[in-house]
Design brief:
BTB/POZ_dom, Signaling_Regulatory_Domain, alpha+beta, 29 strands, RCC1/BLIP-II, about 30% strand, Potassium Channel Kv1.1, Chain A, single chain, Methylamine Dehydrogenase, Chain H, four-stranded antiparallel β-sheet, seven-stranded antiparallel β-sheet
Length: about 575
């Protein structure tokens, strides 16, 4: 039967893995199912609103992963130097420098290009010549860069899919990690202790560097006048050295660097900080520098999933969407309604659940995005101080930095994807549904086809995805769409659904989402939900969803939670 739900082909997981998907789990509908009927291909297509159908014939547009926010590179003045063809080829990009006068980007063919002023040889072209014409960095072409960060010199760090780290640019404080203080005119691999490691994230302070490995270890090097490399001294570090002490037995999942301070977030949501603390940006209740990592203590137990550092302030986001801020506040960059510095975390008053928070160590601006897609900004916005989060008309936080940051740098290495929107999309989508009305299908002889495995909202979202490559659903409906995507092996749609569900997780629905992740073989979502449940174990075990969980799944959860230390006092 056309559109009948195909049988799942369950993949085998390694022995001893958590919550094996072969076990049956009773399905619970999120909403009352509405039948979705179609008498012909025309009726299928008429379920799509006319504005949505009009999008099909628009030119190909770049959109950020993973939530498909539209990116307009034209908002960054420096990109006006590129031709339309060059702009259309960009896969990743970053604008940096003291005046936002340098840029690096990769193409869909994994070529790497740079252009701009070339301060301190930061373009890595082998000379000190500026250029308005993009120049190719042959040494990095084909390396598949996954992360990039820049300092104030500036110096540049990148890491690729293989976990290799390359550095170039300003090196007055050995921040390139090559054992000397000689300027780096071209990208060179950072070896020493990182040679045997796979690096998954890099971060640059003003003149120091950080790297996070796949096994959760943190390495630092460079300028250390305030203890920002975490070695316990103030001596500069010319090569990467692991930050141990209180991080010795911890698994770090993300890192961040300010001008002269460093932070790390562990897998259990704890935050560790070290380095300069003159305006309270470490959040430890005082303004004394820290030469070694110390754990940040919040007024109430929270699980932090993201930390970003501005010029002298810090923002953090909890797994329940609560935003915290501390540090310098002379421009209102904390968003708390005044200009008083804060030496300990305080809540930023917003009425929405936040899913992303942004800042950059070269600016005093802050931005955040809510679960509903609203983008807010505050702090020093083009010379004006906004003391509280201000609602914008932007669809992504990157636009805030392009239009209101001074300088207009990028706060992250921006990765883009090219939606498959073209004139051919209309034809391909029609063919997708037209096949069920061909002579070899049983439905060809029926006047009406009834499909009732999923709700109307889920089917409509599926059609919208096929036509536009985008998804717009609340988290509760995204579970059904995840099931449908699994049924039809739409892997990219599965990833989009998982991203939506992550943003909607709460104490009340955590176990429901965990069960769904197991059922639909969404490993990344499963791990995310498991960590959330462990970090909020007392609260989630009091919910109805916990006691309604399948017995075998519940048993496996308890076993793994015990192994991960979830029941420790």
């Amino acid at each position: 039967m056309a559109f009948a739900r195909p049988a799942h082909t369950l993949r085998q997981r390694p022995a001893g893995s958590y919550l094996r998907t072969q076990r049956a789990v009773p399905r619970r509908s999120i909403r009352e199912s509405r039948c979705f009927r179609a008498a012909s291909i025309t009726e299928w297509e008429e379920t799509i609103d006319s504005p949505l159908r009009q999008q099909i014939c628009k030119p190909v547009t770049a959109c950020t992963k993973p939530n498909a926010d539209m990116v307009d590179f034209g908002k960054w003045p420096l990109f006006a130097l590129l031709s339309p063809q060059d702009l259309a080829s960009i896969r990743q990009a970053c604008i940096f420098g003291s005046a936002a006068n340098e840029a690096i980007y990769t193409t869909q063919n994994n070529e790497v290009f740079v252009f701009g002023m070339n301060s301190s040889n930061c373009l890595g072209t082998g000379d000190n010549q500026s250029t308005i014409i993009p120049r190719r960095l042959d040494v990095l072409c084909g390396k598949r860069i996954v992360d990039l960060s820049y300092g104030s010199g500036p110096h540049i760090l990148v890491c690729n899919e293989d976990g290799e780290v390359y550095s170039w640019g300003h090196n007055g404080y050995s921040q390139l990690g090559n054992g000397n203080a000689i300027q780096g005119v071209a990208p060179v691999q950072v070896c020493m202790e990182l040679l045997a490691k796979k690096v998954v994230q890099v971060a640059c302070g003003s003149h120091h560097s950080m790297a996070l490995t796949s096994d959760g270890e943190v390495f630092c090097w460079g300028y250390n006048n305030c203890g920002q490399v975490g070695s316990g001294t103030t001596a500069n570090q010319s090569v990467p050295r692991r930050v141990s002490a209180t991080l010795q037995s911890k698994v770090v999942v993300s890192i961040a660097a300010g001008q002269s301070s460093s932070m790390a977030v562990t897998d259990n949501g704890h935050v560790y900080c070290w380095g300069y603390n003159g305006t309270g940006q470490l959040g430890i209740g005082n303004t004394g520098n820290q030469l070694m990592p110390c754990r940040l203590v919040f007024a109430h137990p929270v699980c932090i999933i993201q930390v970003v550092l501005g010029y002298a302030h810090t923002l953090a986001l909890s797994d329940q969407g609560v935003l915290y801020a501390w540090g310098a506040n002379s421009h209102g960059q904390l968003g708390i309604g005044n200009k008083s510095n804060q030496t300990a975390p305080v809540k930023v008053g917003t009425n929405e659940r936040m899913v992303e928070v942004t800042a950059c160590h070269s600016t005093n601006i802050s931005a955040a995005k809510s679960q509903s897609g609203q983008v807010y900004m505050w702090g020093l916005c083009r010379g004006q101080s906004l003391l509280s989060p201000h609602l914008t008309h932007f669809s992504c936080t990157d636009d805030v930095f392009a239009c209101f940051s001074n300088p207009p740098v990028m706060w992250r290495f921006l990765s883009v994807d090219f939606s498959l929107l073209s004139n051919l999309a209309d034809t391909s989508c029609r063919k997708h549904f037209r096949t069920m009305f061909q002579s070899h299908w049983n439905e060809n002889s029926k006047d009406m086809i009834e499909i009732d495995q999923f709700s109307y909202a889920v089917y409509r979202a599926f059609l919208e995805y096929l036509y536009t490559d985008n998804v717009d659903l609340p988290p509760e409906d995204a579970i059904g769409l995840l099931d449908l995507a699994t049924s039809y092996c739409e892997n990219r749609l599965k990833k989009l659904c998982q991203h939506i569900i992550k943003r909607g997780i709460t104490v009340d629905n955590a176990f429901l989402l965990l069960s769904a992740a197991v059922r639909y073989e969404a490993e990344d979502l499963e791990d995310f939900c498991f960590r959330f449940c462990v970090n909020h174990l007392t609260d989630v075990t009091q919910t109805d969803a916990f006691w309604q969980m399948d017995g075998m799944l519940l048993k496996d959860f308890i076993v793994k939670a015990g192994r991960s230390g979830g029941f420790r006092n």
